[in-house]
Design a protein that fits this description.
The protein has 709 residues and is of the alpha+beta class. The protein contains 16 helices and 23 strands.
C-alpha cells in the first residue's frame, strides 16, 4: 500500500513497514505498531516459522515501497513537472493500448468472417464423401470459434466502452484535484501575505510599544482569559461547541452541619462520616503548594544549585508559508523543520517534564484509602498539561538511541530515564523509580497530523504507576493536544478528550473529561471534571478544575438522580462537602515569555551535567546551539545529524534484506536500556526498563552506547 492508502485503511489493518514482529513461544506471534498489538497463533512451530518468514519478507517489501515514496525524515518534494509528465504518459500509454485492443477486436471479426466464407465455399465443392464429412466437422468447429469469438468481441467492446468512460472520469477527477490544490495553495499564500502585511503595519503603528507598559508580569497576568484570546483569533479558527455536550452530573455543595449523621442514612454516601472531611489532618490538608523551588527545600536542600534562566529567545523572522504549504496531511515527524519552530528541549525532556509535580505521588503514598489515593493520581495526570498552555513550539525529535536521565534521587527521591526506542513511528520509553514508594513507566508513540488550520497531536500508549507498599497499580492514557492557528493568527493550544484511570488491584476508576474550548460556552476555559468511583460503581469524590491552573477534590455525601436532559439522559446530582485544592500550578519564572515560557523545572532540564551517557539529550549539538541563540549553526548541525541517522537506517535496512535472502533472522534495532514485553494489564507489546543504566553510570562504562551525535 502507498502512504496515502495507509492513511485511509479500514479498521484492523497494520502498517508492516513500522511494525515489530516478535515470537512469544513455539506457536504465538505478536505484531505491534504504536499503541496497536495483534496476537496470532499458529497450529505448529513449522507453520509459525512460515508465517514469520512471510511477514518479514512483506515488511521488507513495505519498507522498500515506503522509501520509494518518501525519505525517512520527510525530505518530500511537491509534485514536480516530471511527475506530472509521467502521469500523463501513463494515461497516454493506456489510451494507446485501448486503441490496439479495439484494432484487434476489428481484425478478429474480419478474419473470422473470411474463414467462415471460405469453409462454406469449400463445403459446396463436389468432393468424395469422406472429405465432405471432414469438411463438415471443420465447419462446425469454425462455427464454434465464430460464436466464441463473437462473445469475446462483445466482452472486449463492453470493456472498451467502460474503460473509455472511466478514463474520461479519471482525467476529469485528476484535473479537478489539481485545480483544487492550486486554489488551496493560492488561498493560503494570500492569507500568509495578508498576515505578514498586518504584522508590518502593526510594528509601524504609532503608540504601540513592544514593552507593553500596561501589563504587569504577575502570575495572574500570565494566565489570560480564553475569551480575551479569542478576540485576537481569526474568524476561520475552528472551535468546538461545548454546549452541545452537557456534563453528565451536577455538583451541589452541602453544609457539613446538616450532615453529621451516619453513612447509612445517606444515599450513595462515600465511606466514612462527612465530618471526617473537615477534621482530616491527612495528605489532603498538606496539598497546598507554593512554588517549585520552595517545595523542594522543605524536604532536603539541593546538593547543586540549579540554573534559573537561559539565553533569551532571538527574534528571527521566517517565511512560514514556504515550509508549511507542502506539509498538509503529512505526518509531523516526516516534515523537515528548521529549529525556528522548536524549543531547546527534546521530546524525551518534555516527557520527563511530566514529573514537575511529583510530590503529588509522594502524598498519594501516604493515603490509606485507595479512592483517596486515586484523587492524587488524577490530579497528577492533569498536572502534566499545565506547562503546555503557552508552549506552542515543537520539541526536538529524538534520534534513535538517544537517552535522557534526570537523577534527583538525593533532592526529590526519584531518578528518571528515557530512551528513544523507535524512529518511525517515533516512540519513547520512560521509567521512573522513587525511593518514596512509587514507580512509573510508559512507552509513548506520538502520532500527529497537520491539517492546514490546526495541528493534532495524539499520544498513543499507556502510563503505568505502581505504589510499592499497597501494590495499587494505576493505568491511564493521554488526551489529544491541538495547536490552532498554524498559518494565520496567534498560536494557541487546547487539550480535549477523556482519561480513564483504572486501579487494577482495587478496580477503582476515575473518569476525567477535558472539555474542548468553545467561544460560546459559559464554562470556565480549559475545564476538567471527573468522578472517582469504587469497584461497585459507587461515587466517592468529584474532581474539578482546569488543566492549566489547579485541580480540586470534593467528597460526596449524597447522590441522587436529577432531571432528564434534552438528549434523554438522566443527570446525577452529587451533594458534596467544600472542595480542597490538591494541585495548583507554580507561577512561571520572571522573564518566562523570553525563555520559551519554560517553568523552573524546564529551565534545568538541558543544564549541562557531568557523567551522563554520551547519548544524553544534553549533549545534542543542534539543541545546544539553539539554546545559545545560534540558530543558523543549529540548522546546519540538525541537517548533519538527520543525514547521519538516515545513513544508519539505510545500512540497517540493507542488512535486513540480506539476512532475509539468506534465510536468517534479523532482529533489527534493539533498545539499549529497555526490552520489549507483553504488558499483562493491556496486552500490548511495550518497552520496559531492564536495568543496567545507573550501574553503568556509577562505573562510567558507556562502551555499549552507539555514536549518534
Amino acid at each position: 500500500r502507498t502512504q496515502a492508502e495507509m492513511a485511509h485503511t479500514c479498521r484492523g489493518t497494520i502498517n508492516l513497514s513500522t511494525a515489530h514482529i516478535d515470537t512469544e513461544d513455539s506457536c504465538n506471534i505478536v505484531l505491534s505498531n504504536g499503541g496497536r498489538t495483534y496476537h496470532l497463533k499458529a497450529n505448529s512451530e513449522v507453520e509459525r516459522q512460515r508465517w514469520v518468514t512471510a511477514l518479514e519478507l512483506a515488511k521488507a517489501k513495505a519498507i522498500r515501497m515506503r522509501n520509494n515514496q518518501s525519505d525517512d525524515s520527510g525530505d518530500e518534494e511537491p509534485a514536480s513537472q516530471s511527475d506530472k509528465g509521467e502521469l500523463h504518459g501513463t494515461l497516454k500509454t493506456l489510451s494507446s493500448k485501448l486503441e490496439d485492443l479495439s484494432t484487434c477486436n476489428d481484425l478478429i471479426a474480419k478474419h473470422g468472417a473470411a474463414l467462415q466464407r471460405s469453409l462454406s465455399e469449400l463445403e459446396n465443392l463436389k468432393l468424395p464423401a469422406e472429405s465432405g464429412e471432414k469438411i463438415k466437422a471443420v465447419n462446425e468447429r469454425a462455427t464454434l470459434f465464430r460464436i466464441t469469438s463473437n462473445a469475446m468481441i462483445n466482452a472486449c467492446r463492453d470493456f472498451l466502452d467502460l474503460a473509455e468512460t472511466h478514463s474520461r472520469k479519471w482525467q476529469r477527477a485528476l484535473q479537478y484535484e489539481r485545480e483544487q490544490r492550486i486554489r488551496l495553495e493560492e488561498t493560503i499564500e494570500q492569507l500568509a501575505k495578508q498576515h505578514n502585511s498586518l504584522e508590518r503595519a502593526c510594528r509601524g503603528a504609532p503608540g504601540l510599544s513592544s514593552g507593553g507598559a500596561g501589563i504587569t508580569n504577575t502570575a495572574k497576568g500570565d494566565v489570560q482569559s480564553a475569551k480575551g484570546e479569542a478576540s485576537d483569533e481569526d474568524e476561520e479558527t475552528e472551535y468546538f461547541d461545548a454546549m452541545e455536550d452537557a456534563p453528565a452530573f451536577i455538583t451541589v455543595t452541602a453544609d457539613p452541619k446538616h450532615h453529621r449523621r451516619s453513612g447509612s442514612n445517606l444515599s450513595g454516601a462515600s465511606e466514612g462520616h462527612p465530618e471526617d472531611w473537615n477534621l482530616e489532618d491527612s495528605v489532603f490538608d498538606s496539598s497546598n503548594q507554593t512554588s517549585y523551588n520552595e517545595s523542594t527545600c522543605k524536604d532536603l536542600l539541593p546538593k547543586k544549585r540549579r540554573r534559573t534562566r537561559i539565553p533569551d529567545k532571538p527574534n528571527y523572522s521566517l517565511n512560514l508559508w514556504s515550509i508549511m504549504k507542502n506539509c498538509i496531511g503529512k505526518e509531523l515527524s516526516k516534515i523537515p523543520m528548521p529549529v525556528n519552530f522548536n524549543e531547546p528541549l527534546s521530546m524525551l525532556q518534555r516527557l520527563t517534564e511530566d514529573l514537575e509535580y511529583h510530590e503529588l505521588l509522594d502524598k498519594a503514598v501516604k493515603c490509606e484509602s485507595s479512592t483517596e489515593q486515586m484523587c492524587f493520581v488524577a490530579a497528577f495526570s492533569v498536572s502534566s498539561y499545565s506547562t503546555t498552555v503557552h508552549r506552542t513550539a515543537k520539541p526536538f525529535n529524538p534520534l534513535l538511541g538517544e537517552t535522557y536521565e534526570l537523577d534527583r534521587l538525593d533532592e526529590f527521591g526519584f531518578r528518571s530515564l528515557c530512551e528513544q526506542v523507535s524512529h518511525h513511528p517515533p516512540a519513547a520509553a520512560h521509567h521512573v523509580y522513587s525511593k518514596r514508594g512509587w514507580t512509573l513507566w510508559q512507552e509513548i508513540t506520538i502520532a500527529s497530523k497537520f491539517r492546514g488550520k490546526y495541528l493534532s497531536i495524539m499520544p498513543l500508549g499507556a502510563i503505568h504507576l505502581e505504589f510499592h507498599s499497597s501494590g495499587n497499580h494505576y493505568v491511564w492514557r493521554k488526551v489529544t493536544s491541538t495547536v490552532h492557528n498554524i498559518i494565520v493568527g496567534k498560536l494557541w493550544i487546547d487539550q480535549s478528550g477523556e482519561i480513564e484511570i483504572v486501579n487494577h488491584k482495587s478496580k477503582d476508576k476515575c473518569q476525567l473529561k477535558f472539555t474542548p474550548y468553545s467561544y460560546f460556552s459559559r464554562d470556565v476555559p480549559r475545564k476538567v471534571t471527573g468522578v472517582v468511583t469504587d469497584a461497585d460503581g459507587k461515587a466517592h469524590y468529584v474532581m474539578s478544575g482546569t488543566w492549566d491552573e489547579k485541580m480540586e477534590c470534593s467528597k460526596i455525601v449524597q447522590s441522587s438522580h436529577g432531571s432528564t436532559s434534552s438528549e434523554g439522559k438522566q443527570k446525577t446530582v452529587y451533594q458534596t462537602l467544600s472542595p480542597k485544592v490538591l494541585w495548583k500550578k507554580y507561577p512561571l519564572p520572571e522573564n518566562a515569555e523570553n525563555m520559551y515560557f519554560f517553568s523552573d523545572l524546564a529551565l534545568t532540564l538541558n543544564e549541562p551535567e557531568e557523567r551522563v551517557a554520551p547519548t544524553d539529550s544534553r549533549l545534542r549539538p543542534d539543541q545546544r546551539l539553539m539554546e545559545s541563540g545560534r540558530w543558523d549553526e543549529a540548522n546546519v548541525e540538525k541537517q548533519r545529524l538527520e543525514e547521519k541517522q538516515r545513513a544508519v537506517r539505510r545500512r540497517r535496512e540493507a542488512e535486513a534484506v540480506e539476512a532475509l535472502e539468506e534465510g536468517k533472522d534479523y532482529e533489527g534495532y534493539i533498545p539499549l536500556w529497555f526490552e520489549r514485553k507483553v504488558d499483562p494489564m493491556t496486552g500490548e507489546l511495550i518497552c520496559v526498563y531492564k536495568g543496567g543504566y545507573w550501574e553503568a553510570k556509577d562505573k562510567q562504562d558507556w562502551s555499549m552506547c552507539p555514536d549518534i551525535f
